[in-house]
Amino acid sequence: MEKQTKNNKITQLRNDIKKAQLNKKYNDLSTFRVALSKLQNYAIEQKKSVDELQNTEVEEVMVKLGKQREESIEAFKKGNREDLVKKEQYELNLLQKYMPQRLSEQETTSAVTKIMQELKIETPNQIGQVMAEIKKSYGNKIDMSIASRIAKEKLA
Asked: What is the CB-side half-sphere exposure of residue 23 using CA atoms within 13 A?
């Protein structure tokens, strides 16, 4: 019996798992299963079923998985492990269709500038206020590390 879900990202992930199984794409299958497992763990923490998760919650988990892949890529590059860099990059590309579309660096710069002007931020001590407002306003659509770097540059 197929589970009924209102969340199209969960449905899409389950369909991708089926396609990977049918096409014997074991690397894809492994990546998708890890993602579904992380979503199930998140759902348990939230005292929900996976099917009750909202798209924003799915995106939040996928962004975390993506960040882990990005950090791994950097570490493997430093260690001259191109084979593992390629593997992690491939997995990151698979997961990106479940992540929200991120703002470009230029869009991030204008968003940070706008919030700093609205809040009348003038000193580096107030950077926490800027970051809290950015997170509240943009959520997963903005890369917080880029936003933080831009805010620090503007206040330096």
From this structure: 10
Q: What is the CATH number of domain 105-155?
A: 1.10.10
Residues 96-135 have pLDDT tens digits of: 989 888 888 888 888 888 888 888 888 888 888 888 888 8
pLDDT, tens only, 132-150: 888 888 887 888 888 888 8
DSSP symbols for the chain? -PPP-S-HHHHHHHHHHHHHHHTT-HHHHHHHHHHHHHHHHHHHHTTS-GGG--HHHHHHHHHHHHHHHHHHHHHHHHTT-HHHHHHHHHHHHHHGGGSPPPPPHHHHHHHHHHHHHHHT--SGGGHHHHHHHHHHHHGGGS-HHHHHHHHHHHH-
101/2 Cα distance (integer angstroms): 29
Fold classification of 8-98 is Hypothetical Protein Yqey; Chain: A; domain1 (1.10.1510)
Tell me the two tokens of residue 78: 């430093």
Which residues, at least 6 apart from 78, have a Cβ–Cβ distance to it below 8 Å? none
Query: Residue 96: which of 135, 58, 63, 72 has the closest Cα?
Result: 63
